[in-house]
Design brief:
Elements lengths: L1 E5 L8 H13 L5 E5 L2 H5 L7 H15 L3 E2 L5 E3 L4 E5 L5 H22 L13 H22 L6 H6 L4 H15 L1
Parallel strand pairs: 1-2, 1-5
Antiparallel strand pairs: 3-4
Length: 182
């Protein structure tokens, strides 16, 4: 089982690729692959990053059914992963890193519940040291990958690091973009 998530714009320079992606997904040409389109820039424009919850709501049921690999303290495998989420944007960097970070945090929360670190129904406290380390390590990884491909740290890293999109982060992204393309 696989989910293919497109974060591509449905207009402008990305429109043609978006239409092709949606055509293939709509035709069911790849059995066992579920296609989801989420125009990241349109949905999250004007600082509406809470709209990422729309995408996570679409993924949640599948993520739960895919499970993850888990071995208990006696070495017994108690669950295995049965699916993959492939996230795609034009360069597979900045938008992809944000969404994969949300997916990773969702799955990690379930793993911590299974290990007894969190109670059933509990969430990772957003103010915890663990949350801080997780988000910053994820952002550092995104920065490293982005530097390899573009020569600059990742865009949108203010959101990846804090869970909040800021005007300062927007300005920093403008500066990084100028470095990338000028």
């Amino acid at each position: 089982k696989n989910i293919c998530v497109s974060l591509i714009d449905d207009k402008g320079k990305e429109k043609e690729i978006c239409q092709s992606f949606n055509y293939i997904g709509g035709q069911g040409l790849l059995p066992g692959v579920k296609f989801i389109h989420f125009d990241f820039h349109k949905e999250c424009s004007k600082m509406r990053w809470y709209n990422l919850n729309i995408l996570m709501d679409k993924l949640r049921e599948d993520l739960d059914s895919y499970s993850y690999f888990f071995k208990d303290s006696q070495g017994k495998v108690t669950s295995t992963q049965s699916g993959v989420v492939r996230t795609n944007c034009i360069d597979c960097l900045d938008r992809t890193n944000v969404v994969q970070g949300l997916i990773a945090r969702y799955v990690l929360t379930h793993q911590l519940r299974q290990m007894g670190v969190l109670g059933q129904g509990d969430e990772i406290p957003t103010s915890s040291q663990f949350e801080y380390v997780f988000k910053n390590r994820w952002a550092d990884n995104g920065d490293g990958i982005a530097r390899q491909y573009t020569g600059t740290p990742a865009l949108k890293s203010d959101y990846t690091r804090t869970g909040v999109r800021t005007k300062m982060g927007l300005l920093q992204d403008g500066y990084k973009s100028m470095q990338r393309y000028v």
